[in-house]
Structure of Oxidoreductase [Nocardia brasiliensis ATCC]:
Amino acid sequence: MKFNRLRPRVVVVTGAGSGIGRAIAIRFAKLGARVVVSDIDLDAAQQTAAVIRGHGRLASAAQLDVTEPEAWDALARNVLTEHGYTDVLVNNAGILVAGPFLELQPSDWEHQLAVNLMGVVYGCRAFGAQMVERGAGGHIVNIASAAAFTPTPVMSAYSVSKAGVKMLTECLRLELGPKGIGVSAICPGVINTSIMENATTLGVDDDLIERGKSLVRQLQQFAETLPFAPMSPDLVARAAVRAVRFDLAVVPVRTEAWLGYVMLRVAPGVNRIMTRPFSMKTLEKVGARLLMPAGRT
């Protein structure tokens, strides 16, 4: 770990129309950076930019499909022309494709990896080239997941994509570090976002999926009532800022992420069985217990 003298002036964040991406964009804007808010949903990107400008900070919106390398190259050129060189790129855009391995089709794998892994590859390539060209440093933050180092049933495609992001990050640290460019992987645990609501789920009973999503919504609503915001996307935003400030390689976020990260090293066998699935009935009982009004038993 080292202290990074980089002071972000221009920051590009993908998938910043909501959730973690929006929180990261707002956090960097508060620190004085001009933020380019990109998302495949231009309206959502514009809403985030409007929130930032409403606080007297600088932001602009751009539409970006991270699966298209040409779109990445165009965005990099446009940002350079309009705002100058990018100091920090945050690759946040991601999706979840879930389901038993044998139920996933090749197209499901292609879709998952195109967004979560290749989208990060294209972003690192487009903006990394500019950072090298400038010769004045820079930083790339890749949002991975605790799934990168904790095997999870029925999430093989997602876990592989995030493990790929983590390994890409560590490879790029070796290549780009000597050029003054930092690269960090943020690995969040359970965070209050809409990724589960928007997930593509295959080979699982529809009623089970809906009950699972309902439970997630209830737990998120319960978390929002707590004073310490245990599942807030801002936890990831703070981790992203910290990763840039101290040039950190891998930053787990939340207890379950740290547990998986540590157990992978000290007891990998235990790590492999930690996520054996509970039955939905058990999960519902846990959720009901957490959500039960005080004084009831």
